[in-house]
Each structure stands twice: as structure tokens, then as C-alpha cells.
């Protein structure tokens, strides 16, 4: 009997339906090659959900998400819904599904493809061979800490926020980082500001405690300011970076920008029970419906789903290798096209990747 996995697909807005269609074609090829069955259901989120139901995250979508093994999301948002109240905008659907599924870890790869080295702002000798992962704590830290507010003190306005982490929040993100590092190059860099912040002192202490169970993995601690510098100076030295919400927000964008091809970046948001996979890029409404969007980031997000949630490590690597081979053969969508390469549309890029599978 075939192994079966339930996937909720959320095409969303803008280029979402096009890159979703391309990604599902790749998953069909994986079904055949690995003799598995993907039971795919489709749901509404973002602007598409607002148009249909008036809610950026309908209850039906949430129900389907909780009944699935993983959620694969394309993109939400667009000018069409910009004038709606903040709590009714498409992005609220994305924030709410992350919260409802308790997705505490965001995982962002930063991989430099040999065929796209020219796109990086760094010199080739620095960026070539970079393959790192930033794991950012997503549901705690200064973005959610209390007390917070704006008030008047001594005749002037004061804004304040609280950076706070409890032991269990740090434990679960550290454990995830070490588990993932075991499947890679077995090195974790924990990023904090323990020389200044008490919350970081606790962070470092708990990470060390968790590391006791992962002695086969190398651990280094690094202050966030130094990390920002070393990512530019010697990015190849990093494997898995784990850090809190605020530092992770900044570091993951820096790591992604190093490769110079933001349209290629996948991501995962992981919880104790649920997981959601999505490309880093937005909905690009200006090119929606033209079949010219780059589907690679969503295809690579599906590869992360196979790897992390379904433990289909070989299938995930097959997709990653197929993407690299297609790029090496010169296939490019408009966003990464350069003279001398083959400009292809969304469907053609997907087909080029499938052929390499």
C-alpha cells in the first residue's frame, strides 16, 4: 500500500495560483518516482478568501490545516485590499494561521547557486559554496512580550517593549536546531547578546543545557552584531544559525540577501504538531496572470516539506538537485534572466525542473 500524505495547498493571491500549479506538477513527478500519494486539498487565504467569504482566514481553511500533515502556501496580499481595516487585510490571514497552528520556528535557507553567483552582492570567492540555514524563534521575544506600550512620562512620549523568553521556548527551538544540524554539517551557531541582555544570558544557558544531548554537533555562541559582520566576511563558515525573534528577523534577511536571488528562497514555519511551507517572496500582483513568475522558491518550499515533515530526504534532495541542474543548463525566469541564458515562463521552468528529476 502506498504511503499517503495529506497536504493543504493555499494558492492565495497574485502569482500564487500560477506558482502553485507549477509546484503541484513537480509533486506529481515525485509521486511517480517514489510511489507515494499526496492527498491534496485546496483552501482559501488572504485576499482570495476575503473576496469569497469576507475573512482572510476562514474557519474551513483552519479546519483543513489541522487535518493535514503539512500546509503549502504561495503568497497573500495586493493593492486591491490595501484600503481595508488592518484586522481585515490579507496579511492577517497569514499571521493568524501561524498563531493558530503555534508555529514557533521559522526556517530560512541561504544557498548560493553556482549558476547565479553573479547576482550576489559579495565577491564570488566569498559566496561560492554558501549553504546555511537560519532558524528564528517565531512566537516569543520582544514582538510578543508584555508589558508594551506608548505613554507620556515627565512631559514626553515614551515607547517601551519587553524582550522575554522562558526556558521551554528556548529549549524547543534549540532542540529543533540541533536535530536539523544532525542532517547537515553538524554545526550550530547560537546568536544572542549575552554580554548586555539578561534574556540572552538565559538563552545561552538553556542552549548549552540542550546541547548536552547533542554532543555530536558542534556549538558556537556568537553576539548578534558580530554575526551580522561575519555573515558578510565569511558566510561559508555557517551551517545552522539559531536565534530569537528580533535578531532572527534581521539575520534571516541578511542571509537571504547574500545569495542575491530573493525570488529563489523557500521557508518553513514549524510547530509541535503542524508545519507551513511558503516562499519568502510576495504576491507580485503586477505580474500576476502572465505566466512569467519564478516558481522555484515555492518548489523548493515543497522540497523542505518533503525533507522536514515527511522525512523524504532523498526526494527533497532530488528536487534541490533538479533546480540546480536546470539553472546550470541556463533556464531562467524573467527575474533572474541574464543575456546568454534561456528565458522561460513559469510552466517551462517547472517542466525544466521535472525533466531533471
Uncertain runs are none
Main β-sheet, in a few words?
Answer: 10 strands, mixed
Binned, the helix content reads 40-55%
Number of domains: 2
Radius of gyration: 21 Å
Strand order of the largest sheet: 2-1-3-12-11-4-5-10-8-9
Tally of extended strands?
14
Q: How many DSSP helices?
A: 12
Task: Quote the beta fraction.
Answer: 15-25%
* Shape estimate: globular
Keywords:
ten-stranded mixed sheet; 2 domains; 12 helices; Isopropylmalate Dehydrogenase; NAD binding; two-stranded antiparallel sheet; alpha/beta; metal-binding; oxidoreductase; Rossmann fold; 357 residues; IsoPropMal-DH-like_dom
Can you characterise this structure?
It is an enzyme of class 1 (oxidoreductase). One of its GO terms (biological process) is L-leucine biosynthetic process. It catalyses: (2R,3S)-3-isopropylmalate + NAD(+) = 4-methyl-2-oxopentanoate + CO2 + NADH. The protein has twelve helices and 14 strands. It folds into two domains: 1-120 and 261-357, Isopropylmalate Dehydrogenase (3-Layer(aba) Sandwich); 143-259, Rossmann fold. Helix 1 crosses helix 10, helix 2 (46-53) packs across helix 4 (90-100) and helix 8 packs parallel to helix 9. By secondary structure, the chain is of the alpha/beta class. The protein is 41% helix and 22% strand. A ten-stranded mixed β-sheet has the order 2-1-3-12-11-4-5-10-8-9, with helices on both faces. It has a two-stranded antiparallel sheet with strand order 6-7. A two-stranded parallel ribbon has the order 13-14. The mean pLDDT is 95. The radius of gyration is 21 Å and the shape is globular.
Amino acid at each position: 500500500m502506498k504511503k499517503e500524505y495529506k497536504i493543504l495547498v493555499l494558492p492565495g493571491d497574485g502569482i500564487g495560483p500560477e506558482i502553485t500549479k507549477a509546484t503541484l506538477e513537480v509533486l506529481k513527478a515525485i509521486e511517480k518516482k517514489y510511489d507515494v500519494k499526496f492527498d491534496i486539498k485546496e483552501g482559501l487565504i488572504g485576499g482570495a478568501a476575503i473576496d469569497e467569504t469576507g475573512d482572510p482566514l476562514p474557519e474551513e481553511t483552519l479546519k483543513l490545516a489541522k487535518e493535514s500533515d503539512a500546509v503549502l502556501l504561495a503568497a497573500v496580499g495586493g493593492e486591491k485590499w490595501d484600503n481595508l481595516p488592518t484586522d481585515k487585510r490579507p496579511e492577517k490571514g497569514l499571521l493568524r494561521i501561524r498563531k493558530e497552528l503555534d508555529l514557533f520556528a521559522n526556517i530560512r535557507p541561504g544557498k548560493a547557486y553556482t549558476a547565479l553567483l553573479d547576482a550576489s552582492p559579495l565577491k564570488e570567492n566569498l559566496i561560492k559554496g554558501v549553504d546555511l540555514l537560519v532558524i528564528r524563534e517565531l512566537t516569543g521575544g520582544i514582538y510578543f512580550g508584555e508589558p508594551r506600550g506608548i505613554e507620556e512620562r515627565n512631559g514626553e512620549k515614551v515607547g517601551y517593549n519587553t524582550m522575554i523568553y522562558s526556558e521551554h521556548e528556548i529549549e524547543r527551538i534549540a532542540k529543533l536546531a540541533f536535530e536539523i544540524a544532525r542532517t547537515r554539517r553538524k554545526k550550530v551557531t547560537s546568536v544572542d547578546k549575552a554580554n548586555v541582555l539578561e534574556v540572552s544570558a538565559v538563552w545561552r544557558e538553556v542552549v548549552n543545557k540542550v546541547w548536552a544531548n547533542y554532543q555530536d554537533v558542534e556549538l558556537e555562541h556568537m553576539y548578534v552584531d558580530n554575526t551580522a559582520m561575519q555573515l558578510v566576511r565569511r558566510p561559508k563558515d555557517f551551517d545552522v544559525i539559531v536565534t530569537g525573534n528580533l535578531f532572527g528577523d534581521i539575520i534571516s534577511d541578511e542571509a537571504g540577501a547574500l545569495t542575491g536571488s530573493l525570488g529563489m528562497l523557500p521557508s518553513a514555519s514549524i510547530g509541535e504538531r503542524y508545519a507551513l511551507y511558503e516562499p519568502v517572496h510576495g504576491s507580485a500582483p503586477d505580474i500576476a496572470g502572465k505566466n512569467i513568475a519564478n516558481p522555484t522558491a515555492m518548489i523548493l518550499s515543497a522540497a523542505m516539506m518533503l525533507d522536514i515533515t515527511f522525512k523524504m530526504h532523498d526526494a527533497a534532495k532530488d528536487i534541490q538537485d533538479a533546480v540546480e541542474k536546470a539553472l546550470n543548463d541556463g533556464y531562467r525566469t524573467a527575474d533572474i534572466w541574464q543575456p546568454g541564458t534561456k528565458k522561460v515562463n513559469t510552466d517551462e521552468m517547472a517542466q525544466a525542473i521535472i525533466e531533471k528529476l
